[in-house]
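Quick one: structure for this chain?
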Amino acid sequence: MHDQLRIVLVGTQHPGNIGSAARAMKTMGLGRLVLVSPQRFPHPEAVALAAGAADVLDNAVVHERLEDALADCSLVVATTARRRTVPIPEYSPREAALRLVQEQASGQVALVFGRERTGLENEELQLCHASVSIPANPDYSSLNLAAAVQVLAYELRVAALEHAPAEADRATTIDELPASHEQLEAFFAHLAELLREIDFHKGKTPDIVLQRLRRLFQRARPDPRELRILRGIFSDTQRLLRKPSDS
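Got it. Here's what it folds into:
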């Protein structure tokens, strides 16, 4: 199950939490673990707390940057314990699980967990398409990382069992799939470059405008062909801007 779905742990401080998360994953049929800048890994404590899920640890992939961990993903959902200032769609655990399971039938997807104490930074959240929060007791909402992984892994398993995708629903070509995270980030960089060249921001900070445009295109889920068309427009516009005038 979930060959296309990865669990991503960012900046995990305690190796035991990595092992416990691996155990939580394996009990629900998940095997793809990706670690971003873990403070201590590999580590004997991780193996001890994996309790039979050492194969998940052995196959774990480690990256230094979250961007690299998500490069080939078409849908990324971030877990967060509190409302953030970053404008991002919010799903319930059941909604998030269903979206991820449906999307993984035709592309790579990721569920991202942040640091034990501080979670994900706003810059990291901006790399994600949506967020999910576990509706814990508001009077005592502290949830261990591995426990959070277990809750959402359970929801993923339920969604997979109840909504197994039909083979006919799979896209038939690469260009019919939503663009990958890497393709979108290259598009956003090109868009930012063009906006600077046409002086769109008029000396004002570009952050808010770029953040809103990022959300717009992440909601639209363009495919690679559509991004190529847009980037072709950008390139032609830049070429005309740089062309010396006849005068």
